[in-house]
């Protein structure tokens, strides 16, 4: 009976020593949190291992995350996985459905994201962009001849229309001189002609008679305007003037119209176009509705595929720019020792208990062996 009690005692003592030793060793990984001094000397093993090596631990964790966890290859494999793509498409479609359900107008959305008075802002930006574009375009066009600015098709059409323009002018002049107003104008011109010739003109006018002269001149003018040669001559004159005009630099057109007048016209056109457009008052759902099927089935998958491919091609650069190792190191360095202890224990608490139990088991076995040796000796 004494022998059994002796062996049990030795096993209990050995198990207690092994368990307490392992438990103390685990505790010394974290504690004490700060150095302990006695008589001005820091006691050994203070602070604990992790508090003492926290900076080194933070740096190694950062390297481990970059080199072994969040590697470019791992991120690329995740992006290329079919399940990830399907989930991303499903999430994007759900997000679009939420926007459609809200019935929010474009103006409300812009105001919500911090853009006050979006219509006025669009007008201002459009005018600014228009001024910049106009000036850039005119810098290139001003030195060029007008004929070099307009396409050849436009010039050919203009030359074809010159004959029509000549006929139109001749027809309008014919209508005018056939009218009573035109006849009176001819009479007035004849009077002015004779009055400018002094006494000889007055005598000639009295001899011929003004009314009879008008009746003779008017048919000749009408005959002249109806003659095909007159119209051909007029067309040739207009074509010559057109060719002269197209030789001028394009800056002459701007100078003739006025740069400021052109800019004001463009500004009014853009502002009126924006103000007449009711897109800001329409709901996002109404704007998307005509393209809903195409958006869901084509645009969203295509956009996500393009984004995935771009990220995959740039993943090394992205990881390098993010400097994940520095982020992890900085975050870990800001953790308190208590938080580090809680984080590690939350992951390894069960394993640490098993180490304690294993120490107790080994201690008990060693105690049993010591008891047997003691009895044998």
Automatic annotation (TrEMBL):
Family the UniProt entry places it in: Belongs to the UPF0754 family.
GO cellular-component term (any): endomembrane system
UniProt keyword annotation of Transcription present: no
Keyword Transmembrane helix included in the entry's annotation: yes
Predominant localisation class: membrane
A Pfam family that the UniProt record links to this protein: DUF445
Domain of life: Bacteria
Subcellular location: Endomembrane system
Name this protein carries in UniProt: DUF445 domain-containing protein
Species, as recorded: Parageobacillus toebii
PANTHER family: UPF0754 MEMBRANE PROTEIN YHEB (PTHR35791:SF1)
Alphabetic keyword roster: Membrane, Transmembrane, Transmembrane helix
InterPro entries noted in UniProt: DUF445, UCP032178
Membrane-spanning parts: 6-30, 355-376
